[in-house]
Amino acid sequence: LYGYLNRVRSSRCLAAEAGRNLEVIWLLGGLRPDFRTIADFRRVNRAAFKPLFRAFVLLCRKLDLFGRELVAVDGTRLKAVNSRKRNFTQQKLAGWIKLADERIEEYLGRLDRADRAEIEAQGAARRAATLEAKLARVRTRRELHQAMLTELVASGESQLSLTDPDSRGMAMHPKVGVGYNAQVAVDARYKLIVEQNVTNSGSDLGFLAQTAGAAREVLGVERIDAVADKGYYKGEDIAACEDIGVVPYVARPQRGSAVASGYFNRTEFHYDPEADCYVCPSGDRLDPYTRTRKDEHISIRYTNMRACQTCSLKPQCTSGSRRTIDRWENEAVLERMA
Prior knowledge:
Nucleotidyltransferase, domain 5, 21% strand, 42% helix
């Protein structure tokens, strides 16, 4: 408990604290467990931690320490023991296999040249033996990487970690490297954690409804407000929140090539639900043009080529022949949140 409150996660660091920190010495009553005892305790009692956390949350609820009106949801990245060198993707393994094949070809060519020069040079045989040893090592590594790639493809996973099998590479968080993504919901009154769930996803997308919904159930209320940053902005997830009694407030990210190029933002195009059209900054109407489907996500594209060709604001709107606006089929959910 002391380690988690003070962000001391290493078993060796906790063992050191038990021998020098007066707070920990008092808390343990003079006991000085070594790092193996601490590590084994966490490993053996892993299944008990979540029920213990849930019992603590229920105690806080009984003492009326939760406001039960607003929760904040966010994710934090936790570094795993697994190093980057022992984390593999299909692309990484395929690259190493290709490199191994190139080295094998190179060593075989050098061995052929060494055989031809054996008569002319006394050290050729010694060099050939060295090359054969290198060739054997490369072939062994290639076989290992090929076996790992076969296992990864068969598992259907995107990554393979050898030390911590459940950990994944966090591409957006280079300081963490390989680790976990812990989703947390915090009550607004006294900033106490209500719900937590550890995942291995590198992104927060898709976890708002799951985390806030679990917090609502623990707090025992019919409806609850939930705030989150733009990393949780996903239409399907926000729609799911409404279905489970969660009122979401998620920051809207500024995405798209128009924003990067300095053109009119999508928010400057106003949607008319009765006419099913957008009104652009120049006052022209953009009507539905095409309908696309990707998995379960259906988008409708709005445009007006004729108006764009003669529009005086076109240099501020697009560099193409026309400006298009894509609208999610259920975007009314996002507009209600705004």
